[in-house]
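User: I'll paste a sequence; please echo it back and then give the predicted structure.

Assistant: Echoing your sequence first, then the prediction.
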Amino acid sequence: MSIDFSALVLAPAMATFGRPVLILPIASQPIAAPYPARGIWTVESINIPTEDGGTFSSVKLKLGIRLADFTIAPNVEDRVATAASQLPLAYWQGVLPTDGNIDFIIDNFSPDGQGGAVLILKRVTS
């Protein structure tokens, strides 16, 4: 007997913790219109040692999605837009527009083997 992890765990988690985003399927569905979706934001701290013994610190922004929520899953080079107010507080570094959308490009798509996937995002600044 197999357990449907996506239905038993991911669906309730997405309903509780998911935040609205807009997917612009530029690469996965080039002629399709943007569509609403939900995802769970996480921020990963990255510390990279430098040659002089110091440390360069940055963050990696991730969006967890439930694959069953998509007919065709978003993929690398697609865009994700969200209201700045929907981002996790750990991402708020520098100046972010509090009343506008922030655009990201999907840099990496990593299925988790449990019915979900993690999208690694990079901010689009222009």
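The chain has a mean pLDDT of 89. The first helix runs from residue 5 to 17.
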